[in-house]
Structures are given as structure tokens and as C-alpha cells.
Amino acid sequence: MKLDIIKKSENPSTQKEIISKIKEFINLKNLEPGDKLPSERMLSDKFEVSRSNIREAIQKLEFYGLLKSIPQSGTFIADIGVIALNGMIEDILRLDEPDFKSLVETRILLELKTVRLAALRRTDEDLLNLNKALLAYSNKVNNGEDAVQEDLLFHLAIAKASGNSTMNTFMLSIIPEIITNFQKHHVCDAGLTKRGITDHQAIFDAIKEQNPQLAKQKMKEHFKELYNYCYNV
After folding, report:
1. What is 23-37 written as a DSSP string?
2. CB contact burial 219-232 (16+ within 10 A = b; e otherwise)
3. Domains parsed from the chain with CATH numbers
4. What is this structure's pTM?
5. What is the pLDDT of residues 158-174, one digit of tens each?
6. Backbone phi, then psi, for 210, in 5-degree steps?
7. What is the Cα–Cα distance from 165 to 20, expressed in whole angstroms?
8. For residue range 26-68, what is the model confidence (pLDDT) as tens digits?
9. Which helix (H) or strand (E) is 48 found in, with range?
10. Rounded distance, CA 20 to CA 14, Å?
11. How far is C-alpha 4 from the chain's CA centre?
């Protein structure tokens, strides 16, 4: 199993510059909804940046619903007015990098919802995926290995089991920052990993029993130490 996430840009300033240039290009050429953008190669040459940087910028705009990529056809402007598109791109460019406390608060609020929905909606396939993630995390922790990704895979499996695609996508979008901050602040050295095995098992059992109240309570207990640790950083 591996994390399939929206990639965190290694150079946010470059990405913002490219997004700004894409906006300028759209306005200069008077492009409208449904119009096609030049290829990644052409944009790479025009903006004098790598194709991978172009790709990341396009993926970010696509994530926010401003562009739409169609395999073997190209990238097109989404069905949104030019004024609204310009306004949304300006908002994206103003977005600040989230701080650690904000990420923790957002994650907790989100997961208290997803775990409750997962307990109500989970399928047998969801239980299999949850159990695989649980075992992968336990094995890494018991072997003394870094288990940040396995931990988040378990929580992603819960988000998927919730049956809410928007919540699942939102979880995917914030995970790169979570991984970076967990490593930066050495969260996994805070004595949380060993307890995590027991916590994950309790959450899994509640979801399996389709008990939403218990699942939410176990998730609250699971996040208590993380929340307290966050506010002592």
C-alpha cells in the first residue's frame, strides 16, 4: 500500500509564479470556458520552467476545479466565467502555508465526521482495507520503524469508508503538509506510536460493529494526546 496524494510542491513560490502566468495567458488570449491551453511542453518553453513544475501547477488548478485535463486531448478551461476564474486564482495565490496547529485542528474536526460516517456506511471491502492498514502500521511500529505514512493510510481508509468523496479528497489534499510537520516536529517520538496500535484497533472494532457513537469517542481519545502535544510545541 502507498499514499496516493496530491503532491506537495517542493518550491511553492515557483508554483505560484506559474499559476500567475497561466492566469495572465488566459486573459491575454481572451480564453473562455472550454478553450484549450497549450501543451505542457509549450508552456514549459514559454515560461522557462520544467514540465514537472507546469504539471504541478495545472494539477493544483485542476484540484480547485478551474482546469480540466482530458487524457490524450489536453487541458481545458473549466465551465466557469472569466471573472470568477480570475478571482479564484487570486485567492489561491494568497493562500498561506498552514501552520501545524491549524492542520491538527482541521484534521481532528474532519476525522470526527468521517469516522462516524464510516461506522454507518462501511462495506466488507472497507473493513479489509482498514485491517490491512492497521496491520501495516502495527508491523512498522513493532519493528521500531517510522510509521507516519502507515498511520495516515489507516485514517485515509476511514475517510474512504465514509462514502463522502469530498471529505476523502480534502484528507488527501492536507496529508503532504501533515507528513512534513509530523517529521519536522518529531511527533512520532512523542510516545504516540505504541499507543496508536491500541487506538487504531479500538477505532476499527467500533467501525466493524457499526457503532458511530463509539467510533467517534475512540477517535476523540486517539487524538487527545496529539492535540495536547500540538499546543505544547
Report:
1. HHHHHHTT--TTPBP
2. beebbebbeeebee
3. 12-94 (1.10.10.10), 100-230 (1.20.120.530)
4. 0.64
5. 999 999 988 888 888 77
6. 55, 50
7. 29
8. 999 999 999 999 999 999 999 999 999 999 999 989 988 899 9
9. none
10. 10
11. 9
